[in-house]
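FW: tagging you since you asked about this chain on Friday. Here's the raw sequence from the shared folder, copied in full. Didn't touch anything.
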Amino acid sequence: MLKPWLPLALASVAAADAANVTTASPPVPPDPVGPYDFPDPAAAWDGRQFHAYGGAMTMSSTDLRHWGARPDILAHSPAWAHPGAGGGAPSPAVRLGGGDWMIYFQANPRDCERPPCGCIGAAKSDSAGGPFVPTIEPVVCMPEEHGLVDGSARRIALGADVATVLYFKSTGFNTLARPARLWAVVLTDDGARLKGAPVNLLNQTATWEARNGIGCIEAPAMLVQQQQQPAGKGKDATASARFTLFYSGGDWTAGLDGVPYSVGYASCASALGPCVKRTTHKPWFGPAFKDAVGVGGQEVFTDGDGQVWMVFHGWAKGKAGYGNGGERTVRFHPLSEIEQLAGPLQPYDQ
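HL: got it, structure written out here
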């Protein structure tokens, strides 16, 4: 019998961190976490504590329950961006081979006159909690795609090497003729430049994602897991990887009306695709969960005990939209709990 899917162990995890890994996953914290508007959240475990990134701020915790916040995730505004750019929708921090931590964020370049025309930038720190110092130039801009947002990075084994793979959304016009798209691209060893051309993984196609110019697909988050298969007599154990690309769709300003914001996913053959949508007719998770509506902006991360968590934002019921006094507050739940509610994830070959 096959063993359960487990988070893929990568060579980028330092031995020093392994010595500080917790012996158990923390309890599920109450919803929501913190009194903050914390849209498009991401999170990472650095071997000692958890770090969460959302809006343009960061928080740190040892138990997912008690948090200390830093209002500015970047040490200063990027030189290439409009003055005052603060690093919107930051990715989870990833640890590069040399030990530095890198995040990816969205900002409009200085020559942007009619937004959206954003680029994805990078910023580096010696700590997963920052502050992060932006690089001189953005990592990727695609003006023909009408702006980029929602960068998300992973350290993933590609053949014999471990590389940083950046996922992001191009805005398009949120129509079937010019859809929003999700992309992946391999970065150079310093995590600051493209190593190849971006690969288009998914486009908006479903009515729950967008209709009549309202809604989109966005917030790509790749989960890489491995499944161990016991070795037969005279055979070595084999391992196969499962690649699941989560994304959000719908109108992020909506609660349960119109085109409500929710979470979908696709099964992928590799970190760079191809990918097949599993949520072509309806979302996988959302638009409501307990006291939250319009859930999405999700990311996934693994704690010190190997448990996979999903972090996402949501509006309080009756307060969807900033115009209604709402805030997009953050929630943490084990992925296994959400699978029990939404249904098991399907691998690429099914």
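FW: Residues 123 and 134 are 4 Å apart (CA to CA).
HL: agreed, and The chain is about 5% helix and 40% strand.
FW: great, closing this out.
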